[in-house]
Amino acid sequence: MQDQDLESKFGGFGKLLLQLLSLGLCAIALYARFPFMTLLGLSPNWLLIWLVIWSVNRPTIFAVIAGVSLGLIQDALTIPSDMAFAPTHTIGLAIVGGLTALMQKERYIQEDFISIALIVFGMTVIAETTIAIQLTLLGQDLSQVWELQQQITLGSAILSSLWSPVLHFSLNRLLRPN
User: Fold this and answer.
1) What is the spatial distance between Cα 68 and Cα 153, in angstroms, rounded to a whole number?
2) Which of 104, 106, 139, 160 is deepest in the core (most CB within 10 A)?
3) Mean pLDDT throughout 38-44?
4) Distance of alpha carbon 159 from alpha carbon 154, whole angstroms
5) What is the CATH number of the domain that holds 160?
């Protein structure tokens, strides 16, 4: 009933436009550094949270494509232009989108904000670990990369999973497939 209300208010194109607007706001929020949103200088990975919420009830191929697209957006926003080689978020977010879609959450986990927070925590660990693996393959010092990876992964996973219910609650109806 509520989905029909949303469809009648905005139509299919309006719903798509609102989804893109929410995605744009999440991309902009990557730069937000409010005192209550940071831990050890880290902030939540808003694009990963959006991807998990979106991918929960989508086919795997669409979720992987969305992960690649969001990874390219995050790379465009965060990687300096003067760097010759840099690790990419594309691989990690593609894996996150695919794994989230494969979970078929409606079968195994009840759809609520706690399960979304747990999924976001696990997927953040996976995404940050792919970045650390790429840095290692690019020739960075192994001990330094993995020491920093632990701090970054844990901080980012905690913050992202704590903020994911807020985004899930506000976007749940909007991002649900027809």
Assistant:
1) 20
2) 160
3) 80
4) 9
5) 1.10.1760
Query: 4: closest CA among 151, 148, 131, 176?
Result: 176
- Alpha-carbon gap, residue 161 to 159, rounded angstroms: 6
Q: How far are the Cα atoms of 40, 97, 98, 155 from residue 102, in angstroms, in the given order?
A: 32, 9, 6, 26
Question: Can you give the length of the chain in residues?
Answer: 178
Domain, as residue range, for 149: 2-175
Maximal CA-CA distance, the chain: 56
Collapsed DSSP state (helix, strand, coil) of residue 42: strand
For the stretch 55-70, pLDDT in tens is 888 899 999 999 999 9
CA 172 – CA 102 distance, rounded (Å): 19
Measured CA to CA in angstroms, residue 1 lies from 4, 7, 135 at distances of 5, 10, 48
Tens digit of each residue's pLDDT (9 = 90 or more) over 90-109 = 999 999 999 999 886 555 55
- What's the number of domains the chain is made of? 1
